[in-house]
Amino acid sequence: MTTAPDTTSYDAHFKVWRGDVDGGGLEDFTVEVNEGEVVLDIIHRLQATQAPDLAVRWNCKAGKCGSCSAEINGRPRLLCMTRMSVFDRDETLTVTPLRAFPVVRDLVTDVGFNYEKARQVPAFVPPQDLGPGEYRMQQEDVGRSQEFRKCIECFLCQDTCHVVRDHEENKTAFAGPRFLMRVAELDMHPLDAAEETGLDRKSTAQEEHGLGYCNITKCCTEVCPEHIKITDNALIPLKERAADRKYDPLVWLGNKIRRRTS
Amino acid sequence: MRAGTRAAIAAPHLRTDRWWLAPAATALGLLAFVVYSTWRAFANADYYHAPYVSPFYSPCLADNCTTMKGGPNWGLFGEWWGLSPALLILIFPLGFRLTCYYYRKAYYRGFWASPPACAVAEPHKKYTGETRFPLILQNVHRYFFYAALLVAAILTWDTALGFRNEEYEWGHMGLGTLVFLGNILLIWAYTLSCHSCRHIIGGRLRHFSKHPVRYRMWGWVGKLNERHMLLAWASLLSVALADFYVYLLATGTITDPRLF
Amino acid sequence: MAHVERQQWDVVIVGAGGAGLRAAIEAREQGLRTAVICKSLFGKAHTVMAEGGIAASMGNVNEGDNWQVHFRDTMRGGKFLNQWRMAELHAREAPDRVWELETWGALFDRTPDGRISQRNFGGHEYPRLAHVGDRTGLELIRTLQQKVVSLQQEDFQESGDYEARIKVFQECTVTQVLKEDDRVSGVFCYERESGRFFVLESPAVVLATGGIGKSFKVTSNSWEYTGDGHALALLAGASLINMEFVQFHPTGMVWPPSVKGILVTESVRGDGGVLRNSEGKRFMFDYVPDVFKEKYAESEQEADGWYEDPDSNRRPPELLPRDEVARAINAEVKAGRGSPHGGVFLDVSTRMPAETIKRRLPSMHHQFRELADVDITAEPMEVGPTCHYVMGGVDVDSDTAAARGVPGLFAAGEVAGGMHGSNRLGGNSLSDLLVFGRRAGLHAAEYARGHADERPRVGDAQIDAAAAEALRPFGVGSAPEEERAREPEAAENPYTVHQDLQRSMNELVGIIRREEEMSEALERLAELRERARRAKVEGHRQFNPGWHLALDLRNMLLVSECVARAALNRTESRGGHTRDDHPEMDREWRRANLVCTLAATAPEPPGAGSEAAAEAGTETGAGRAGRIALRRREMPPIRKDLLELFEKEELIKYLTDEELTSE
Fold first, then answer.
1. Are B108 and B114 in contact (CB under 8 A)?
2. Is the CB of residue C198 less than 8 Å away from at least one CB of chain A?
3. Which of C187, C455, C494, C533 could cross-link C549 (Cys pair, CB 3.0–4.6 Å)?
């Protein structure tokens, strides 16, 4: 094995937020960086050499599990998918925990908000008349929901969304992009039988999951490491579907009449 | 909802890039258009020079319009309307663009700073988004889309009229015809790339496989829709340009170079 | 000792990957209160990394497929060392397990007639892998996760508590399976976030912790794969089988260092990628073993013809079985013909137009562009072997997934041994998780129900001992006085010990194994065990990664020793075990399982500061005495009707004459 020449390795300046619920601050580090490394490697080097108890959450290190979400120079990113080579060598990198969630320690935050929201979205309702093995779906009919199922649940979209990032009080009413996308995924599922059970995902998106809070400023789409077009393909179509139900005067009139006659 | 404290970071953001550039540019661009279009809409002058009618004044719905031969003189509002006729018609494209999903993003970010940029704290204490009046009205976008279709159809007719010369004889072209052609293409592309259009064409369907034609159209609209922002700006620019071209002709600043 | 919280559950599942979640769903559907414990966040388990698909003989693409064919393929892949009953159950039940996922909301890629699409894969006779692009593992984990959530929603409807009957304890680690009177009584755990200890009392515990890859330097596995379940089972008195069989995938990324080991999918070669050394030579032609000579091309021209016309050309040698390719790459690098970063070149850029590459290999294109700054449409990739999967695991009953010898303990998924024999086929892992995850959940629930009236109590002494062991790296109440006096504390950094362990295993018990090297590995492991005992960490218990690693070292060391000892003992080459000094497959060895148990020592109560106890010798005793005892066990003969699925000529290669005539 040939060793990489010396020029490929350099010392970088890092500011890493360290602390917990009781407070904390940015701590300075100077740390070696080698060619081809990502920010998570540098954090690991800090752990192994300078700060063994530096807390960071990670898992697959290949951008597939969505564990190592944090903020680098103020932008929500996956630590394992942010290459050091995109920064200038003399640039100081600031690494901070996700801002929208309570901090646990150092770069680790309590992402429980997302799991609570996940529970509030009613699950897929299997069609009554089809047994296992009898499902027939066309590729073009599953394509839209499949895009949303690429989601690795890194919660970067939940973190960057100003609705909850800047307004803690909205957390009760607003499910966040990830889970509104989940509603869209189920509403577009070709065999979901929610409607037969009296569940209208289109109106609940607005009434129960806070779709109206979204002002489509697209930060969720910008940060998505899976490049899912959350706003264009999930949130806006969902808004349109809700509009079908609620803001279409013809539909509204029809409902009025039907209600009166029934 | 949950007890717990966020990491104690006082700075409203830690971004080191020029995050303010995009919202600032957007705001400036929109502002420039607002200023220009307000001036032109209230001017009530210099909007017709045969065979071209400014898109700001088409169709002309009041009696106080310049007579445009074969053009869109539909005096629906009669004589009582004394203001600029542009105000009557501009409501529709304005409403379409104001409720457009792209422009909403642009002005929420650019003017309201809600948020100014991703991961940059917004300056507002409270935020309710589009959950209540007046912003809940953004949901009527699709009706403006229908209106925009009509307007686009009329502008298409106007463009066709551009294939005449100053004597209203058919079969001619000038530089203005090209300006109008470019404009109407962009207007159509922008209008059809609209998210509501995408929804109506096919997005609302549950089973694409049962509607192959609509599925295919949905695909096309989707392709256009990916460039909705670009088309929004391009068509905004082109419509102003078309109007300005007519203004220059009408004021006699330039003469329309005739191609044939 | 401080108060340790206790909770009572009916079934406890350790691990929330495919097997763990499937087990949890089953136990909950049986009506039992089920707890799941996982080291990561819920939904992040290593299962998400699986790309290819789930093998199940649904016959959607080729109607000729059925469970018998799948069984046959699995046995061949495992070189007939598989627990045949597991292979049979797996092949029979896999389709039901896949269909069931659809009723929970999974969206697989479709065939033109609307059924689940199935793709070809190495070793499978027919297109068999249900898949979603190249992210099947993610779809699997998300579907199971969402099914768990939907069960919680049902419970919420009934009781107002989402977690009434199924609860996920995320970011928690189990350090001991607790026992009372030889029966499982619960697990001792700590919460990674706070460092808080707690005990889940339960008559039934299902291990579903995955594999052991983190004991090797170059691996496709994540940090969670520290062999926890393997070690917990050993410490609880269960045994491990087939630990010598470790699958090395021939093509992992070798550069940049940060992604070394990450998988480069087999489809790259299947679609036309070729392997070259630093001299630009397609070296695989030099490595076709005699037994395969007839099936593989001899010239580049012939090999290239195969992609278009497989009937009149033989396969390119790049598509030899994984072990052959891995060995060849190893040899080229050792001969000094490797790539700059210690691998060889895998090239598609000169083989296909850029557009074709982007269309057929989107994730590889993306992976290399994002992680290595390499455009695979313009330049070759650098690849080398990477530790991928362990075939060995807990010795379980084939039907019930119950660990032999420890009532109340169950194991499913990669942590269970036997199913895959000496080598696993691609796609058989995800189906394994589902089939045996469900079985483990079912039988754990039955067992727990059967013992509902006599729930074992967990004694305080046990808990105190477990807590003491877990706190040892902080130097709190750790080694006895005299021991501390004996070694005046050269405190060890757990990270350094871990790196040394990984290097030793990679270099000495890697793809190609030799007796001397493995003996040396056992020596080194003994030293590492000493050093691990002195591992000290700074800071406090709250989310302290150094502490977590120090605790995981125990497991990795135990498991590594199993691998090394079993590998040293098996004097043949078969599947995932290649001996340089015994290169042939030996039919006599076919029937033998090597069984690892904790070496017999002074009785060691589970939870006692364990290292202190065992230093006894073992029968295979090369090198220094270790903690693992090894014995050879005969496998039960394959059932007659299953044997009849094969041609006699084929069986001759694997079974001894005696086995063949005894029928």
1. yes
2. no
3. C494
CB-CB under 8 Å, A215 with B105? yes
Contacts of C418 by beta carbon, 8 Å cutoff, 6+ apart: C82, C83, C86, C241, C242, C393, C395, C396, C398, C593
Supply C212's token pair.
Answer: 């052991």
Contact C63, A82 (CB under 8 A): no
What are the pLDDT digits (tens) for C143-164? 999 999 999 999 999 999 999 9
- Any CB–CB contact under 8 A between A137 and chain C? yes
Domain boundary assignment for chain A: 6-109, 112-261
User: How far apart are the C-alpha atoms of B145 and B200, rounded to whole Å?
Assistant: 10
CB contact under 8 Å between C256 and A37, yes or no, is: yes
Inter-residue contact C419 to C83 (CB < 8 Å): yes
Provide the pLDDT confidence category of residue C602 given band limits of 50, 70 and 90: very low
> Could you confirm whether C484 is annotated as catalytic?
no
Assigned CATH class of A112-261: mainly alpha
Domains and CATH numbers, chain C: 5-245+391-460 (3.50.50.60), 249-387 (3.90.700.10)
**Beta carbons of A71 and B14 less than 8 Å apart:** yes
pLDDT single digits (tens) B27-52: 999 999 999 999 999 999 999 998 99
- Which amino acid type is present at position C158? E
Instruction: Label the pairing between strands C409-411 and C204-207.
Output: parallel
Give percent of chain C with pLDDT exceeding 70: 93
Locate the domains of chain B by residue range. Answer: 21-120+128-250
Q: What was the pLDDT predicted at C605?
A: 41
Q: Both ends of chain A: CA-CA distance in Å? A: 81
Rg (CA), chain B: 22
Could you tell me which residues come within 8 angstroms of residue B188 by beta carbon, excluding any fewer than 6 positions away? B152, B156
The superfamily CATH assigns to domain A6-109 is: Beta-grasp domain (3.10.20.30)
What is the layout of strands, in order, in the sheet containing C592-598? C393-394, C240-241, C592-598, C628-634
Distance of CA A129 to the CA centre of its chain: 35
Distances (CA, A) of A249 to A241, A252, B150, C282, C591: 14, 5, 19, 69, 76
Separation CA C499–CA C450 (nearest Å): 45
CA–CA distance, C226 with C257 (Å, rounded to integer):
20
Spatial distance between the Cα atoms of C509 and C564, rounded to a whole number of angstroms: 6
DSSP per-residue string spanning A20-88 = ETTEEEEEEEEEEE-TT-BHHHHHHHHHHHT-TT-----S-SSSSS---EEEETTEEEEGGG-BGGGS-
Q: Which residues of chain A have pLDDT under 70?
A: 1-7, 249-251, 259-262
What single-letter DSSP state applies at residue A102? B
DSSP structure string for C596-623: EEEPP-S---TTS-GGGT-----TT--S
Helices (H), A121-170: 139-148, 156-160, 162-165
Average pLDDT, chain C: 90
Residue C649 C-alpha from the chain's centroid: 32
Q: Chain B residue closest to A215 (CA)?
A: B129
Closest partner CB to A216 (pick from B6, B101, B140): B101
Counting Cβ atoms within 10 Å, is residue C562 exposed (0-12), middle (13-18) or buried (19+)?
A: buried
pTM for the predicted model, two decimal places: 0.93
pLDDT at C504: 96
pLDDT in the model for residue C480: 53
Could you list the pLDDT tens digit for every one of the 260 residues in chain B? Answer: 344 699 999 999 999 999 999 999 999 999 999 999 999 999 999 999 989 999 999 998 888 888 887 778 888 887 888 889 999 999 999 999 999 999 999 999 999 999 999 999 999 999 999 999 899 899 999 999 999 999 999 999 999 999 998 888 999 999 999 999 999 999 999 999 999 999 999 999 999 999 999 999 999 999 999 999 999 999 999 999 999 999 999 999 999 999 98
